[in-house]
Design goal:
Length: 428
């Protein structure tokens, strides 16, 4: 990606950093990276896990969505911080500071996660198009591939065009779910209870909870955010870096709060429509067809539109992240068409083998959750090193929160693997 911004945006940034310009409008010049990263938190994998969570357990697992969103905010802010302060992204720093065997292991895990990510995103867009136009799923996948490749061509124009395109998709998804919430009869009291009362009723709820974590806190988004901020704003002093960090942190909170509300809306809609009498609804296609008789054609239509927007935009962002990860770890930049091809081949293979698309989506999120500790741990290590971050290295409470977030993810993953191998878990 070219690292240039328009002259007008650069001039605005310079004036803000110099202290000659202020106000809410000046903050818009610094917005963009968190908006792009936020689409990873509204991808089709979220649809699959959130539908299963709401249909199977009502509002009970809303606390998992909230927890995942808070962890996401923390780690995305740390990723942005890394890029702003060092001028390097997480993959580049890993290549420069870790032993080569560790770097190769990280690269392999990251590539597996990239394939799992693209499986979810690509399948989601394809399912939406297939349902909308009554076409075979394979045809929907081909159309999704063409559209995403066309959008990726805007990457060559620099930051702003891609930020505006992804921002439009984010706005469309948010609007669709605002309408869904207005249509669906939500039990707001139960939703509030589920939001603040941690509970895992059974082992299946644990699997879905780990899937929600994997679908919400995304490995590729952690890598990507540091790359989006590393050369975006030219800073010369620590005071200027501190000012850029404040703008970045505010954007992370706003963008990921919006993404979190969309995820909560997904769970609440599924709980409202399916939990009482249709708790076995677990597939995106089934949810779409049942929404019309339960909530009306408008609810089904907006659900489908949001799914298509989510699949296409998140697939674009996933390809950008994969390119950045590959280039950062081994300093190889692949053509966009080749990178796109590498990550969509597994998706076509899964469909060709006859695997249920929604099951594939949910399992891809579990894979992502297992891969997630790798960039999380690396980010904590680099963010706490004074020789890399200088006065901006994290200490005290922030470092403790980062370690706690990573521990929660690692703990959930351990329990999931123990369940998979038939070990008894107390309380489940």
């Amino acid at each position: 990606m070219r690292t240039n911004l328009t002259g007008r945006t650069q001039a605005t940034m310079a004036q803000v950093l110099a202290g000659t310009r202020s106000g809410p409008r000046s903050a818009l010049a610094f917005m963009g990276p968190a908006v792009i990263a936020s689409i990873a938190y509204m991808d089709p994998g979220n649809y699959a896990t959130n539908i299963q969570a709401g249909a199977g357990y009502g509002y009970t697992l809303l606390w998992v969505v909230l927890l995942a969103n808070l962890i996401a905010m923390l780690f995305q802010s740390l990723s942005a911080r890394l890029g702003i302060v060092t001028g390097h992204n997480l993959a580049e720093l890993s290549r420069d500071h870790f032993p080569k065997p560790v770097v190769w292991i990280m690269l392999i895990i990251s590539e597996i996660a990239a394939m799992a990510t693209d499986l979810a995103e690509f399948l989601g867009g394809a399912i939406g198009l297939a349902l909308l136009f009554q076409m075979p799923l394979m045809a929907g996948m081909a159309v999704t591939a063409i559209i995403t490749y066309g959008l990726l061509l805007f990457e060559a124009r620099g930051f702003r065009p891609m930020e505006l395109i992804i921002g439009a998709f984010v706005g469309a998804i948010g609007l669709c779910y605002l309408i869904e919430i207005l249509i669906a009869p939500i039990a707001w009291g139960e939703a509030a209870t589920g939001l603040v009362t941690p509970s895992l009723p059974d082992a299946a709820a644990l699997t879905i909870a780990v899937g929600i974590i994997g679908a919400t806190v995304m490995p590729h988004a952690i890598y990507l955010h540091s790359g989006l901020t590393q050369n975006r704003v030219v800073t010369r002093t620590d005071a200027e870096r501190a000012k850029v960090l404040r703008f970045s942190n505010r954007e992370v909170v706003v963008a990921l709060a919006a993404a979190g509300m969309v995820n909560m809306a997904m769970v609440m809609m599924a709980a409202s429509a399916f939990h009482a009498g249709y708790s076995d609804v677990a597939e995106i296609e089934t949810a779409y067809y049942m929404l019309t008789p339960l909530l009306g054609g408008a609810a089904a239509g907006f659900f489908l539109l949001s799914l298509i927007a989510s699949g296409i935009s998140s697939s674009v962002v996933g390809t950008m992240a994969g390119q950045m990860i590959m280039q950062g770890f081994i300093n190889i930049r692949l053509p966009v068409w080749f990178r796109r091809l590498v990550t969509i081949i597994p998706a076509f293979g899964v469909v060709a083998m006859g695997v249920n698309p929604t099951d594939a989506l949910v399992m891809s999120q579990v894979v992502l959750s297992i891969a997630l500790p790798v960039p999380m741990i690396a980010l904590i290590i680099f963010s706490g090193r004074a020789d890399i971050m200088g006065v901006f290295c994290i200490r005290g409470g922030m470092r403790a929160l980062a370690i706690l977030g990573a521990t929660i993810v690692l703990g959930l993953n351990f329990v999931l693997l123990a369940e998979a191998f038939g070990m008894d878990i107390a309380g489940l």
